[in-house]
Design brief:
mainly alpha; 0% strand; globular
Length: 91
C-alpha cells in the first residue's frame, strides 16, 4: 500500500493545496484520483465513513475534519485507516 500523499508531500489545512505542494485530505484524494470524479467521490465517502467511525456522526465533512486539526498527525492516521477500510471493501 502506498503512503497517503500528505505523508510524502506535506499536509495543509484551509486549502486543497498550498504553495509548497502540501495537500489537505481532500486535495490528496483529488490528486490521486487523477480527474476521475467517481473514484474521488468513492474515496471521500470511505474516508468520511472512517472518520465518523472514530469521531462520531457529528463530523460534517472531510474538509471540516481536516481543518479542525493544527497538525497532520490525526488526518494522516485517518487516511491510513480509510485505506485499510477501502481495501477491506475491495475498492
Amino acid at each position: 500500500m502506498r503512503s497517503p500523499r500528505p505523508a510524502t508531500g506535506g499536509w495543509c489545512s484551509g486549502a486543497l493545496a498550498d504553495e509548497d505542494g502540501a495537500h489537505c485530505m481532500l486535495g490528496a484524494i483529488r490528486l490521486e484520483a487523477g480527474g476521475d470524479s467517481g473514484l474521488e467521490a468513492d474515496a471521500a465517502s470511505v474516508l468520511l465513513d472512517a472518520i465518523r467511525r472514530k469521531f462520531g456522526e457529528h463530523v460534517d465533512s472531510v474538509p471540516s475534519f481536516n481543518d479542525a486539526h493544527g497538525s497532520g498527525l490525526i488526518p494522516m492516521r485517518m487516511l491510513d485507516q480509510a485505506a485499510g477500510l477501502a481495501d477491506a471493501r475491495g475498492l
